[in-house]
Amino acid sequence: MFKFYDFLPSGNCYKVRLLLTQLGIPFERIDVDILKGESRTAEFLSKNPNGRVPVLETDSGQFLAESNAILFYLSADTDFFPNDVFEQSQVLQWLFFEQYSHEPFIATSRYWISILKKAEEYRESLKQKREPGYAALAVMEKHLTHHNFFVAERYTIADIGLFAYTHVADEGGFELTQFPAIQAWIKRVQAQPRHISITQV
Predict the structure, then answer these.
(1) What is the pTM of this model?
(2) What pLDDT, in 10s, does the model give residues 99-110?
């Protein structure tokens, strides 16, 4: 059985927990409280020297970090990852977009505001996150205006990767009312079989 090292409020961890659940794969969840420095202990660093969750431990004792890499690993040969090479590359394109153009602005803002509860302390930094965060949402909105999902008109790990932090963007101070296509897509994702919420285990 997989062991999954998880911090419940984390969107990056949620991605993996959601996919494991939707695939019906049993796993042992191990809570790692990053607010208490539990991802920086010698024991944890032996699993991921980068000191971050999520981490997936395989039956053979191998460790895999980085949420989107774990999504790729788990979704191979499933309906959550296309067979066509170009469509596979499109999935990776959106996952790279999520990590480079989306997560650093929306997820970081949410972390400062809703998890650390230090909005005032990070006020100036939060201002700098606004424009690029909304720019990422605008890219998504434009795509979703003409598509139900991000790749091949079906639910894939591209949707899981982008859903995790987008659906809680308001917790980072981003207003989604101006993005109707994103709002409709969020409902489609939430309607998928075996969907769980971000704090559900």
Answers:
(1) 0.97
(2) 999 999 999 999
Across all residues in the chain, what is the average pLDDT? 98
Three-class DSSP category at 7: coil
Positions of E strands within 66-152:
none
With cut-offs at 50, 70 and 90, classify the pLDDT of residue 84. very high
3-state DSSP percent of the chain in helix, strand and coil, to 5: 55, 10, 40
In the predicted model, what is the mean pLDDT of residues 29-40? 98
What's phi and psi for 31, nearest 5 deg? -75, 130
Q: What is 132-192 written as a DSSP string?
A: HHHHHHHHHHHHHTT-SSSBTTB--HHHHHHHHHHTTGGGGT---TT-HHHHHHHHHHHTS
Tokens at residue 147, please?
Answer: 């598509």
Contacts of 109 (CB under 8 A, 6+ apart): 126, 129, 133, 172, 173, 174
